[in-house]
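Two quick folds needed for the group meeting slides. Do the first one here.
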Amino acid sequence: MKFVADLHIHTVASGHAYSTILENARAAADIGLAMIAITDHGPDMPGGPHAYHFGNLKAVPEELFGVRILKGVEANVIDRDGTLDLAEERLAGLDIVLAGLHSVCSPYGSVLENTQMMVNAMKNPWVDAIVHPGNPEFLVDEETIVKAAVEYDVAIEINNSSLKISRVGSKPHCENIACLAKEHGAKIIVGTDSHFSLAIGDFSKANELLEKYEISPDAVINTSIEGVLRHLNRRSNRKQSVR
């Protein structure tokens, strides 16, 4: 499967990543990607950027080295109501909003509690995708999550890093989520969750999973720029379209 965009990338601003926006854009250009999303963690992540950082992303060019730059966030879900750690007025100014559960920001709970927390995050009208939902630290009812993603028109991520170097034990959950997404018609994004520029565009493990379960490229939004933009512009309350 061919991917044209990497929609989950971190920079030094996240506090635990090691490359700059320029380095990331250059790495993406070198491997022929057309688009990347800069999605640093929200401010509740230890070492993460202040909320003002996200308001000032307008200072970043829309294109670097021929690569379109989306300005976004990987917001942290901070309570069981699905609250994110960035105010709605900040989210409204971003091109893309990812949301995820993280052990240093999100409360642990039962499968039922974790499931409801993730579904509540999907209800936020600015959330475009739920990232690494197969994380075994936060076990969920995976079918409920996938059905909710369809209901709220939120993409589900297959996270390459979860299958390679982080969140050990994710693979069976990611496989089940991919199969459920195929069954129920959920949108998928594949992200590298890159914390160093050389990982950008490495979708190898995620692609193996998608091919194993015969997931169509049409179900994966970052296989075309048109698919990415169509998904990001689906919200009627966005102040302006992402172009």
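Then this one, please, same format:
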Amino acid sequence: MKSVKIFALLLPLMFVLSGCDQVLELVNKQKANGKAVGASCRHSGRSLEDCYRRNARVAKADIYAGWKEMNEYMQAKKITEVAPPPDVKTGSLSPIAEIDLDAKASAVEEASAPVAAKTAK
């Protein structure tokens, strides 16, 4: 009987603590994304300041950690930098971005079509 009471007390505690993994996973994912951004900046030969400016939403510490790791790796393996793609001029989008915008616009039109038909009646 005593073990049932202990189990009844531990069961809710286990459910509460199981959510901690999901929170930690989200935090670690953001950190890993920041490190990936920093590593890609280093591999393409971009400076840290340029990388910070281009990725203002990402934590600078994560970008720096990724940049530093990639720098050490590239020096150890004697890897050369890859030329970064040319900067997109303001007012013009890449073909992929234009396709993406067209798809979003058509999705909005399709979603609003039933609403417009109901209001016309």
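Slide caption for protein two: Residues 26 and 32 are 10 Å apart (CA to CA).
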